[in-house]
Amino acid sequence: MKAESSRGEWSSKIGFILAAAGSAIGLGSIWRFPYITGQSGGAVFVLVYLFLVFTIGISLMMAEIVIGKKGRLNAVGSFRRLGGKHWGLVGWIGVIAAFVILSYYGVIGGWTMAYVLKSFTGLISTSGSGEVAKIFEAFISDGKQMLFYQGLFMAATVIVVFRGVSGGIERLCTFCMPALFILMILLIGRALTLPGAMEGVVFFLKPDFSKLSGEVVLSAMGQAFFSLSLGIGAMVIYGSYLPDKTDIPKASLQICFLTFMISLMAGLIIFPSLFAFGMEPGAGAGLTFITLPVVFAKMPGGVLWAASFFVLFFFAALTSSVSLLEVVVSYMIDSLGWDRKKATILLGVLISVVGIPSALSQGAVTINVFGVSFLDAADFFASNLLMPAGGFLTAVFIGWVAYSAGFDGITGGGAVPFRHKKLWMFILRFIAPVCILVIFIAGLKW
Ligand code: PHE
Which of 82, 296, 284 is nearest to 187 (CA)? Predict the structure, then answer.
């Protein structure tokens, strides 16, 4: 075990919030949220997601950050230090989930990089939505391009993680997040003024409760975990670099709010445009990539808007993939005493190799598992099963086992006031475990 002083620490409070929000905001909000919303009936899904983010999501985020702050180690080590050896299992679920998620995250991350280049090569001038969809199809069924861009994205992730937490990650977030925010607001303006846009707003924001089902709720839970980076120990790690006197509830609220906002904004760009162009909301994993180029084409200087957007989208994905790799790498550093460089490169390569079937499963080769593509299956397994399982155990851990460490950590030993301790504990003890179990049972139709 390494001495605490050899671990990095955030250079400022805002550095932590940016990095944690950077981990949260990524493909989850801009790629996954719109397409799962489209497949899950629209506004009803959004409503359940909203509810889960601000009840279970925020409570678990606080729990994870506290575990890191008190444990001062990676997820496995922090759980062990606070709860004894067998609790390390929770951290392990996280390490496995991070491994699986990153394997396909790299594939979609690669799409964002490819689209930066494609912005300049005809994607934007072909304004017909059918054309754009064809370009996308051709792209994802080209195995060579898939592997090339996946490798490129993974290489970028490795380089940032290589340089350590505060050095690489903090700096990356400081510029990109505000820029992304501003650009997305402009895009909302464009999307909402397209003829026929209102129908999309209705689909996205006016709930049709007849579409509510166990499956929809399970997907919303998976999306809440995925988008907030919960249940896999990512926030444990970021918390482990926190100075003692941090207002964790406030930071968590800010992170949840920002993530929800970006998701909402992504939806307000994609659904109005989709309906305006007569496209299908249930189109699946390509939704963002098929819709946005058509919107850009309707803007003066569209090529530049598109390229800037995809650059920022890429950075948003990168600040998330970095935290996924960090989950796995920091375990190897803390527990097995590996050197950071060795761990980063080795794991980066290994995860990329494991991601190859996902990369090829989008059309290059038919690789189906349980009737869905390999990528979708890996995503379902990690987001809807592993992450909520990790979250369930985290809630039980702080709610029933290590609650005094939880109280002490959340108030910085009494230095930070927190008025809602009882509510927080109630959610962790009862609401979160029960809801997660019920949603599992209803969603999987046991
Ligand atoms: N929250 C990230 C996103 O939305 C994905 C992620 C999940 C990152 C878990 C870290 C841990 O893109």
Answer: 296
Distance from Cα 318 to the centre of ligand 1, integer Å: 10
Reported as half-sphere exposure (CB side, CA atoms, 13 A), residue 406 has a value of 26
Residue 339, phi-psi category: left (phi > 0), alpha (psi -120 to 50), beta (remainder)? beta
The helix/strand/coil state of 243 is: coil
DSSP code at position 244: S
Full set of structural domains in the chain with CATH: 13-444 (1.10.4160.10)
* Angle at CA of residue 70, ends 69 and 72, nearest 5°: 65
The rounded distance, in Å, linking the Cα atoms of 93 and 112 is 28
Average pLDDT over residues 225-234: 96
Q: What is the DSSP string of 263-316?
A: HHHHHHHHHHHHHHTT--TT--TTHHHHHHHHHHHTSTTHHHHHHHHHHHHHHH
Q: In this predicted structure, what is the pLDDT of residue 19?
A: 84
- Predicted confidence band of residue 4 (pLDDT cuts 50, 70, 90): very low
Backbone phi, psi, residue 369, to 5°: -130, 125
For tokens 């980076």, what's the residue? 229
pLDDT at 126: 65
CB atoms within 10 A of CB 233: 36
> Which pLDDT band, with edges at 50, 70 and 90, does 8 fall under?
low
Residue 194: phi, psi to the nearest 5? -75, 145
- DSSP bridge partners of 56: none
For ligand 1, the distance from its centroid to the CA atom of residue 415, given in whole angstroms, is: 31
Amino acid at 295: V
Query: What per-residue confidence (pLDDT) applies to 335?
Result: 82
Say whether pLDDT at 61 is over 50.
yes
pTM above 0.85, yes or no: yes
Which amino acid residue places its CA nearest to atom 11 of ligand 1?
229
Q: Is the CB of 234 under 6 A from ligand 1?
A: yes
